[in-house]
Amino acid sequence: MRKMTVKDIELKGKRVFCRVDFNVPISKGEISDDTRIQAALPTIQYLVDQGARVVLASHLGRPGGEVVDELRLDPVAQHLSNLLDQPVLKADDVYSDEVVSNVNSLENGQVLLLENVRFHPGEKKNDEELAKQFASLADVYVNDAFGAAHRAHASTEGVAHHLPAVSGLLLEKELRVLGEALENPDRPFTAIIGGAKVKDKIGVIDHLLDRVDHLLIGGGLSYTFIKALGYEIGQSLLEEDKIDMAKGFIEQAKEKGVSLHLPIDCVVADDFSREANTKVVPIEEIPSDWEALDVGPKTVEKFDEIIQDSKLVMWNGPMGVFEYEAFSNGTKGVAASLARTEGYTVIGGGDSASAVEKFGYANQMDHISTGGGASLEFMEGKVLPGVAALKDHEDEVK
Ligand SMILES: Nc1ncnc2c1ncn2[C@@H]1O[C@H](COP(=O)(O)OP(=O)(O)O)[C@@H](O)[C@H]1O
Ligand SMILES: O=C(OP(=O)(O)O)[C@H](O)COP(=O)(O)O
Asked: How does DSSP classify residue 3?
């Protein structure tokens, strides 16, 4: 069901509690990647332009319900102020009498950022009292925090039950792009799944098998599948207890008419390190005391052919240990292939998003999700609590 958005309601003069995901990497007070702040700008700017009185809330890191000075949001407020080209007021508490008075003094178009909501023990517990306190600060609730939409916390879920609750523009876009890919994809539809563990991707593979035309599997998790096919994988990552499940997926793919592709060659190393000796071998010839840490060039070529013929490509999880130069070519090659294809490209967040950024292809992708865990849960077909709590489109906001 489509959710109401900020575009569907009157905002002038209204106090708006807007949950954003400003969980950005900060080191010694410096923000090293502001992608998530940039991604929230259209909504914040829209609220400002409409003359709303904007109260922003976000978490940063996992402070565990207490104040951790390094996780204060002051550098974010400063950076946001530069991006918006207007002052951003910063509260030193999550909720207090002073916060209430600061909010009540806001003029139309002014922006106030609350302190890291996870400093309050009630946030992660989805405490009713805190949710009501948040609600008391505003007339309208806006959720634009896609990256935290899989969390049922006081500022992402609880508060939505006490105010007219709508989605922001980023959340709306993420749901539209990911939702259309899963419900009404352009075909051929190809999904590429990588990353370390089968365990983490079971739900996604299961859900995708009913939807995709091609499923390409690389990364650490692919070696459990290779083992399931009866090949020896040396010291490569193996989840012994998932071999039967991998066999089941291979069977299901056949039954459902999905073409499932595993690596046909790989880069093996005699040690998990930057300095290891490496060589490229066919997948059926992994030496017993070596481990596969990347897909090989023939695999990249095979995956590329399929990607170039696809109308829609969705990618989640790296093809190898891309953090090390020697094992980055598979991930880099797939990123380059996505950059070249005329099909619509969607990158699940997390490591695939970092890889695309690192290799310089970010601006050639059609959509890079701002949520790792959230996009994974969405791709598993799970309901995201932060989304479920918002008003369905048919409803009227009074
Ligand atoms: N063949 C491999 N062997 C060991 N680790 C791998 C291999 N391929 C990928 N990885 C590691 O998997 C990690 C990413 O896994 P994961 O967290 O599941 O991905 P994502 O964040 O994209 O969901 C990366 O740190 C990468 O180094
Ligand atoms: O960075 C986040 O998650 P992600 O790394 O899975 O995208 C979100 O801000 C959620 O943070 P959390 O996993 O501490 O709840």
From this structure: B
In a domain, 204, yes or no: yes
Residue 286 predicted with pLDDT over 50: yes
- 191 and 166, same structural domain? no
DSSP-H helix ranges across 118-235: 121-124, 128-136, 169-183, 198-208, 222-228
Do residue 201 and residue 128 come from a single domain?
Answer: no
398 within a domain of the structure (yes/no): no
Q: What is the pLDDT of residues 191-216, one digit of tens each?
A: 999 999 999 999 999 999 999 999 99
Tell me the sheet residues that pair with 165.
141
**Closest ligand to Cα 378:** 2
The interface pTM score, or ipTM, of the predicted complex is 0.96
- To the question of whether residue 323 is assigned a binding role by annotation, the answer is yes
Question: Taking a C-beta distance cutoff of 8 angstroms, is the pair 236, 223 a contact?
Answer: yes
Same domain, 116 and 160: yes
Instruction: Catalytic residue, from 51, 109, 203, 373: name it.
Output: 373
- The span from the CA of 23 to the CA of 301, in Å, is 36
Indicate whether 392 belongs to any domain. no
Q: For residues 278, 282, 286 and 287, what is the CA-based torsion angle, rounded to 10 degrees? A: -70
Mapping DSSP to helix (H, G, I), strand (E, B) and coil, where does residue 395 land? coil
CA distance linking residue 260 with residue 306, whole number of Å: 11
Ligand 2 contacts CB of residue 62 (under 6 A): yes
Q: Looking at the CA of 379, which ligand is closest?
A: 1
Domain span holding position 293: 185-379
Distance CA 190, CA 339 (A): 15
Pocket test for ligand 1, best of 266, 280, 321 (most atoms within 8 A of CB): 321
User: Which residues lie with the beta carbon below 6 Å from any ligand 1 atom?
Assistant: 195-197, 200, 219-220, 237, 292-293, 316-318, 320-321, 323, 350-352, 372
Q: Which of 22, 23, 369 to mutate to test the pocket of ligand 2 (most atoms within 8 A of CB)?
A: 23
Beta strands in 77-223, from DSSP E residues, in sequence order: 88-90, 111-113, 140-143, 165-167, 189-193, 214-217
Instruction: Mark whether 373 is an active-site residue.
Output: yes
Share of the chain above pLDDT 90, in %: 97
Indicate if ligand 2 lies below 6 Å from the C-beta of 371. yes
